[in-house]
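Record type: ASSEMBLY
Status: queued
Input:
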Amino acid sequence: MTFDEIMSLVQNEMKLVEDALYSNIDTNVKVLDEVIRYLVSSGGKRIRPLLTVLSAKAVSSESTKYIELASIIEYLHNATLLHDDIIDGATYRRNIPSANNKYGNDIAVLTGDYLYSRSYILLTDIEDIKIQKILSKVALTMSEGEVIQLISTAKLDTTLDDYLKIIRSKTAVLFSAACEVGAIIGNVKEKEAKCFADFGEKLGIAFQMSDDLLDYIGDETETGKNRGTDLKEGKITIPILLLLELVESDVKEKIGKIILSENIAIEDFDYIRDLIAEHSIDKMVSQMVLDNMNEAINALSTIKDTDYKKALIALANLLINRKN
Amino acid sequence: MTFDEIMSLVQNEMKLVEDALYSNIDTNVKVLDEVIRYLVSSGGKRIRPLLTVLSAKAVSSESTKYIELASIIEYLHNATLLHDDIIDGATYRRNIPSANNKYGNDIAVLTGDYLYSRSYILLTDIEDIKIQKILSKVALTMSEGEVIQLISTAKLDTTLDDYLKIIRSKTAVLFSAACEVGAIIGNVKEKEAKCFADFGEKLGIAFQMSDDLLDYIGDETETGKNRGTDLKEGKITIPILLLLELVESDVKEKIGKIILSENIAIEDFDYIRDLIAEHSIDKMVSQMVLDNMNEAINALSTIKDTDYKKALIALANLLINRKN
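Status: finished
Output:
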């Protein structure tokens, strides 16, 4: 299945989600309305809401509350992006100026706060205490993940365990919740909802790992992001972690110096990128991604085969094999 | 009743709130734990949780959930302070370095996010959908209020209506909710809870107006804040608004220039402070504070007379007559 084929399967539902993303903004404060519209209209592929919709459809949900839930998930995602971009000092996102760049950090902080609150209000309207607990826990874990990432910045003693904890917290928990709440609102048993949660979590880990690899080997014109951003920001991700384990101590020292330096020259980045190629780090990361993907797909093994389940798996494959 | 007498009336309850403020932090991320402990232990008078506890006791609440609620209210308050201090570039709060000053803006943003999420999780545990709706709406309104304040910065055409909207959003809604949820958890009828909400709202307005006056005429050694902070930050508050209405156009122009200038000299502040004294602005503001206070007290007129109701009114009087 291609991405377009997946989308055509839930075209009406995703259109309703899109409408909800605009109609739910609901503020008389002009600048808040403007910033949120800017965020929402700047697109992205709506992966997380798509996971919610497909999960709900895969369990034949009779309730249509998954539409609202999907829009809440996207709001929470946008709220974290707003605050992360401030912390990373990001100037661009999705090929256009980031909100903190365009509107300033102060407005970006407050718009993030607004979106969190708006999400909780919408969530309260859904009146499902279990889903409320899951999503407020997700928001909490994401903020913890961002703090762990922040204090691990340029820390050469970051371990693979630290890294896994960070990507689980900042990415996988929201992927997991997106799938799980779709299943829960579809009124399945706890055990079945857990399968969707596991699928989302493993997919989230695979997605973040492949994203972190793309930051070294991706095609800039396709990713819309500058390569080497993680290195510049001192983020110790999976390619660097594996590389540091494989190289001799003198090379290790040199990589350390690059990570700790204030400004990273293009030659420094090229040096590390070449090392990554030389040591076949891309293949190693791809294998780890694949392992997580297989675990994700296995998690759905007991779920009834439908086009929606097929679409979830196809989407997962597209996400980890993307070039952008 | 003195403040100590009020506190001794609910000594056990406020001790439990204090314990909850620490025990509810609940994170394994060391720096988050540290920052929140720093905030919680830096004190403040716990006015908002005290309002919740007194309101619950005033309606003879059988449930003890108001303890947890009071701690949630204080968390929400601290979360907004964290983000406000970033936006204001504040370096001190309560006589000690502000969290953004001590730990950096990035950590302050994320700790605020953590506290919001933690509040919602605790709120979900209380399982009262009405209270959830009230408090998520409060958080939303506070973020809107901060945005309106931000975009009104140094705007000389700010009106009294704008000002009232700002102080209602950033201060009065939380005071109002603190009282209302205390009454609701005490299981009173909607009409009675509304009396507490009205009391809190009017008190919040009176409190913020008197606070804004103190920024011009307060005693620095007692307030623990530098005077003139609002003027420096370009915040158009009630003393300035009233002054601009009373002075001749040349003086008005001079005040305008001071507000718009990058750095405000001590003579400029003294000039405005003298004008405020000369035009008896302090008396005018005090009268507005008193009017709101009377409305606040009237709102409680149908509530049964108890020591707790007396304490609420005594607390209100202390708050608006404070020198710090």
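Annotation: The beta strands of chain A are 92-93, 96-97.
Annotation: Residues 203 and 293 of chain A are 6 Å apart (CA to CA).
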